[in-house]
Protein backbone atom coordinates (compact mmCIF):
# COMPACT_ATOMS: atom_id res chain seq x y z
CA UNK A 1 0.00 0.00 0.00
CA UNK A 2 2.89 2.38 0.70
CA UNK A 3 4.10 1.96 -2.88
CA UNK A 4 0.65 2.81 -4.27
CA UNK A 5 0.54 6.01 -2.18
CA UNK A 6 4.06 6.93 -3.29
CA UNK A 7 3.00 6.56 -6.92
CA UNK A 8 0.19 9.07 -6.40
CA UNK A 9 2.24 11.56 -4.32
CA UNK A 10 5.91 10.91 -5.13
CA UNK A 11 7.17 14.33 -4.04
CA UNK A 12 5.70 13.92 -0.56
CA UNK A 13 8.08 11.11 0.50
CA UNK A 14 11.75 11.08 1.41
CA UNK A 15 14.09 8.18 2.26
CA UNK A 16 14.35 9.34 5.88
CA UNK A 17 10.61 9.58 6.62
CA UNK A 18 9.15 7.83 9.62
CA UNK A 19 6.04 6.17 8.19
CA UNK A 20 3.23 4.48 10.13
CA UNK A 21 1.16 1.94 8.16
CA UNK A 22 -1.93 1.68 10.39
CA UNK A 23 -4.65 -0.89 9.83
CA UNK A 24 -7.38 -2.36 12.02
CA UNK A 25 -5.04 -4.84 13.79
CA UNK A 26 -1.60 -3.28 13.94
CA UNK A 27 0.72 -0.44 13.00
CA UNK A 28 3.81 -1.08 10.92
CA UNK A 29 6.65 1.36 11.61
CA UNK A 30 8.95 2.13 8.68
CA UNK A 31 12.12 4.18 8.42
CA UNK A 32 12.00 5.17 4.77
CA UNK A 33 11.32 1.91 2.96
CA UNK A 34 12.70 -0.34 5.71
CA UNK A 35 10.17 -2.05 7.99
CA UNK A 36 11.35 -1.49 11.55
CA UNK A 37 8.66 -3.14 13.70
CA UNK A 38 4.95 -3.81 14.12
CA UNK A 39 2.83 -2.65 17.04
CA UNK A 40 -0.30 -4.62 17.97
CA UNK A 41 -3.25 -2.35 18.68
CA UNK A 42 -5.43 -2.39 21.76
CA UNK A 43 -8.51 -0.17 21.43
CA UNK A 44 -6.78 1.90 18.71
CA UNK A 45 -4.63 3.77 21.28
CA UNK A 46 -0.91 4.17 20.66
CA UNK A 47 1.71 5.41 23.04
CA UNK A 48 3.83 7.32 20.56
CA UNK A 49 5.27 10.78 21.08
CA UNK A 50 3.43 13.83 19.76
CA UNK A 51 4.61 14.90 16.31
CA UNK A 52 6.84 11.84 15.85
CA UNK A 53 5.74 10.55 12.39
CA UNK A 54 6.26 12.11 8.95
CA UNK A 55 3.60 10.08 7.15
CA UNK A 56 0.65 8.05 8.44
CA UNK A 57 -1.27 5.64 6.21
CA UNK A 58 -4.70 4.71 7.57
CA UNK A 59 -5.58 1.63 5.54
CA UNK A 60 -9.14 0.27 5.16
CA UNK A 61 -10.20 3.26 7.23
CA UNK A 62 -13.90 2.42 6.91
CA UNK A 63 -13.27 -0.77 8.97
CA UNK A 64 -12.42 1.31 12.07
CA UNK A 65 -16.18 1.95 12.38
CA UNK A 66 -17.10 3.91 15.50
CA UNK A 67 -13.38 4.36 16.31
CA UNK A 68 -12.67 6.45 13.18
CA UNK A 69 -12.64 9.76 15.08
CA UNK A 70 -10.39 8.34 17.82
CA UNK A 71 -7.95 6.89 15.28
CA UNK A 72 -7.82 10.10 13.26
CA UNK A 73 -7.32 12.24 16.38
CA UNK A 74 -4.44 9.96 17.46
CA UNK A 75 -2.96 10.20 13.96
CA UNK A 76 -3.18 14.00 14.07
CA UNK A 77 -1.44 14.05 17.48
CA UNK A 78 1.37 11.77 16.27
CA UNK A 79 1.83 13.55 12.92
CA UNK A 80 4.64 16.09 12.58
CA UNK A 81 3.59 19.63 11.71
CA UNK A 82 4.63 19.24 8.07
CA UNK A 83 3.60 15.58 7.82
CA UNK A 84 0.81 13.98 5.84
CA UNK A 85 -1.98 11.54 6.63
CA UNK A 86 -3.19 9.25 3.85
CA UNK A 87 -6.63 7.67 4.29
CA UNK A 88 -7.52 4.65 2.15
CA UNK A 89 -11.18 3.65 1.79
CA UNK A 90 -11.79 0.49 -0.19
CA UNK A 91 -15.00 0.15 -2.14
CA UNK A 92 -17.08 -2.91 -1.24
CA UNK A 93 -17.79 -5.36 -4.01
CA UNK A 94 -20.74 -4.40 -6.16
CA UNK A 95 -21.39 -7.88 -7.56
CA UNK A 96 -24.95 -9.05 -7.97
CA UNK A 97 -26.61 -6.53 -10.22
CA UNK A 98 -27.88 -2.99 -10.16
CA UNK A 99 -29.47 -3.10 -6.67
CA UNK A 100 -26.20 -4.17 -5.03
CA UNK A 101 -24.32 -1.53 -7.03
CA UNK A 102 -26.68 1.18 -5.75
CA UNK A 103 -26.39 -0.10 -2.14
CA UNK A 104 -22.59 -0.11 -2.43
CA UNK A 105 -22.49 3.44 -3.80
CA UNK A 106 -24.86 4.73 -1.09
CA UNK A 107 -22.81 2.97 1.58
CA UNK A 108 -19.59 4.53 0.26
CA UNK A 109 -21.22 7.97 0.25
CA UNK A 110 -22.23 7.55 3.91
CA UNK A 111 -18.72 6.42 4.88
CA UNK A 112 -17.08 9.29 2.99
CA UNK A 113 -19.52 11.82 4.49
CA UNK A 114 -18.70 10.55 7.99
CA UNK A 115 -14.96 10.66 7.35
CA UNK A 116 -14.99 14.16 5.85
CA UNK A 117 -17.09 15.35 8.81
CA UNK A 118 -14.48 13.92 11.19
CA UNK A 119 -11.65 15.52 9.19
CA UNK A 120 -13.36 18.92 9.47
CA UNK A 121 -14.13 18.49 13.18
CA UNK A 122 -10.44 17.72 13.87
CA UNK A 123 -9.29 20.81 11.96
CA UNK A 124 -7.40 18.90 9.27
CA UNK A 125 -7.34 19.85 5.60
CA UNK A 126 -7.80 17.61 2.57
CA UNK A 127 -4.95 18.51 0.23
CA UNK A 128 -5.61 15.87 -2.43
CA UNK A 129 -8.05 13.08 -3.12
CA UNK A 130 -7.97 10.30 -5.69
CA UNK A 131 -10.20 7.45 -6.85
CA UNK A 132 -8.42 4.60 -8.60
CA UNK A 133 -9.75 2.11 -11.15
CA UNK A 134 -10.90 -0.25 -8.34
CA UNK A 135 -12.99 2.63 -6.92
CA UNK A 136 -10.71 2.88 -3.87
CA UNK A 137 -10.81 6.40 -2.43
CA UNK A 138 -7.66 8.10 -1.14
CA UNK A 139 -7.49 11.30 0.91
CA UNK A 140 -4.25 13.15 1.59
CA UNK A 141 -4.51 15.33 4.70
CA UNK A 142 -2.32 18.06 6.15
CA UNK A 143 -2.38 20.15 9.28
CA UNK A 144 -3.45 23.77 8.70
CA UNK A 145 -0.31 25.00 10.46
CA UNK A 146 2.04 23.21 8.03
CA UNK A 147 4.55 25.27 6.05
CA UNK A 148 3.02 23.85 2.88
CA UNK A 149 -0.35 25.44 3.68
CA UNK A 150 1.21 28.69 4.88
CA UNK A 151 3.04 29.05 1.54
CA UNK A 152 -0.09 28.30 -0.47
CA UNK A 153 -2.28 30.69 1.48
CA UNK A 154 0.49 33.24 2.11
CA UNK A 155 -0.27 33.70 5.81
Brief summary of the model shown:
The chain has 155 residues and is α/β, with parallel strands linked by helices.
Describe the structure.
This protein is α/β, with parallel strands linked by helices. It has one domain (2-153): 3-Layer(aba) Sandwich (Rossmann fold). 32% of the residues lie in helices and 31% in strands. The longest helix has 24 residues, at 98-121.
Keywords:
single chain, 155 residues, alpha/beta, Rossmann fold, seven-stranded mixed sheet, 4 helices, 7 strands, globular
Average pLDDT score = 85
Tell me the number of strands.
7
Low-confidence stretches: none
- The CATH class name reads Alpha Beta
CATH architecture tag:
3-Layer(aba) Sandwich
Task: Give the radius of gyration.
Answer: 16 Å
Percent strand equals 25-35%
CATH topology: Rossmann fold
Give the helix tally: 4
CATH superfamily: Vaccinia Virus protein VP39
The major sheet is characterized as: 7 strands, mixed
Helix-strand sequence? HEEEEHEHEEH
The backbone outline, from C-alpha atoms, is globular
Distance between the termini: 34 Å
Structural class: alpha/beta
As for the number of domains, it is 1
For the largest beta sheet, what order do the strands appear in spatially?
Answer: 3-2-1-4-5-7-6
Query: Fraction of residues in helices?
Result: 25-40%
Amino acid sequence: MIEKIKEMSPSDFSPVDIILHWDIKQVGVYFGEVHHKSIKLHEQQMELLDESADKILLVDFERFGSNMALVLSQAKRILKRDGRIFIVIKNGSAKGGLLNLIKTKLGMKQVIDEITGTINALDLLIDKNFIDDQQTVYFELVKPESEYIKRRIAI
